[in-house]
Amino acid sequence: MAFDKISNLIESFDTGTISDERKQVLQPLIDYLNAKVAEKAPIRLNFICTHNSRRSHLSQVWAQTMAHYFEVKHVSCYSGGTEATAMFPKVGETLANQGFRINKLSEGDNPVYAIKFSENEPAIIAFSKEFGHSFNPSSEFAAIMTCSSADEACPMVLGCDKRIAITYEDPKKSDGTPRQTEIYLERSLQIATEMKFVFSGLK
Which InterPro entries does its entry note (predicted)? Predict the structure, then answer.
């Protein structure tokens, strides 16, 4: 089971607030997942953004959490960028406020984090890396492009068997402003609600 705070939060998400236009954007991912479930095949999702610092990490964490919550088996979620930077600290802070347990495993310019959504499930390992990094799958995965600049900058993602664009507005625009906490929370909630829609509707 997910931690109580996370479970209660997931229950509160209203997928009815997602527009029909946005549901069309999410449909290719639903189709991909349904095909893998029907085949009883492993599901590997690599969420890709330019710097692998914000949106791709939020997507990775919420997709893995929703797969567990809705008991979709054999799902492994990853993230990467067209370049490596670091997971932005506000991402970890936002997730911690939503009930995740964040453990910093290393220091330096690009720390490694263990993110727990459940007492007994493996932690999600989060750090910034290029999408082709050896930590990520090299074949039989879906490449989920979470920002338009990464989508445009990556004409090819080698090894993926499906490429899907599900882009989000960058919360970075709020950095250093009074609305930063609010904007990061908004983006996390949007991604979480959409991942609930995706994983709750699988056949």
Answer: Ptyr_pPase_sf (IPR036196)
Contact criterion met (CB below 8 Å) for 116 and 126: no
Strand-pairing partners, residue 81, are: 49, 130
Rounded-to-integer distance, Cα 161 and Cα 193, Å: 25
88 close to 170: Cβ distance less than 8 angstroms = no
- What is the radius of gyration, based on Cα positions, of the chain? 16
Tokens of 162: 């499906």
Q: CA nearest 64: which of 144, 129, 155, 148?
A: 144
Two structure tokens written together for 142: 């879906």
Which pair of tokens denotes residue 137?
């799958």
**Band of pLDDT at residue 148, cut at 50, 70 and 90:** confident
Give me the pLDDT at residue 197, please.
98
Entry pTM: 0.96
Burial environment of residue 146 by CB neighbours within 10 A (0 to 12, 13 to 18, 19 or more): buried
Q: Element (H or E) spanning 202, and its range?
A: none
Contact 63, 70 (CB under 8 A): no
CB half-sphere exposure, 88, CA atoms < 13 A: 22
